[in-house]
Write a structure and sequence with these properties.
The chain has a single domain, classed as Aminopeptidase (3-Layer(aba) Sandwich). The protein is 25% helix and 29% strand. The protein is globular.
């Protein structure tokens, strides 16, 4: 069994493009081409100060990833637009590397980044049936805010979603 120390959590770099493609493509519902476009967009945004992309790297390469970004609604958005703030925008670990604490470490690192930016709380949204995501985030204090919200790019009336929020106490964890 690989030890915790054998996996390094670090900011993503342009050189992680292929590793992210291999990590994400197998589960990408819209198909491999859509995944490639998404990963390219993520890599192109690495220098943006309001975004953070992290990878979990083992000897074999990238085995997990997570991202966070600041978001603010605009006056044109619907009345039920999600509140502005830092959002955890996804976390994934290769199946053979799951159950080793990598998802928790990626989540903690993203919350630390948010705290370092002065955020007092963080948000994320999840499909109401995503029990694994809800279980991963619960120990960090995430609680359901609403299921009636709008966020760009995720509104699909056939996929019920929860918006969740967690306080971010000051200081390192």
């Amino acid at each position: 069994m690989v030890t915790r120390a054998a996996v390094v959590i670090r900011p993503a770099e342009a050189g992680d493009r292929e590793g992210l493609r291999e990590l994400l493509a197998p589960g990408w519902l819209a198909g491999r081409d859509a995944c490639l476009v998404f990963v390219d967009r993520v890599i192109d945004q690495l220098a943006e100060v309001d975004r953070r992309v992290l990878v979990a790297e083992a000897e074999e390469g990238v085995v997990g990833w997570g991202r966070a970004a600041s978001w603010a609604p605009s006056p044109e958005d619907p009345a039920n637009a999600a509140p502005g703030g830092v959002y955890l925008r996804g976390v994934s670990v290769i199946p053979s590397w799951r159950r080793r604490g990598i998802g928790r470490r990626l989540t903690q690192a993203r919350l630390d980044w948010a705290r370092g930016r002065g955020a007092r709380e963080a948000y994320y949204f999840a499909d109401q049936g995503n029990v694994a995501s809800l279980a991963l985030h619960a120990p960090f204090g995430f609680r359901i805010v609403t299921h009636d919200f709008w966020f760009p790019g995720i509104h699909d009336p056939d996929v019920p979603m929860f918006l969740l929020r967690a306080p971010l106490p000051s200081g390192a964890t």
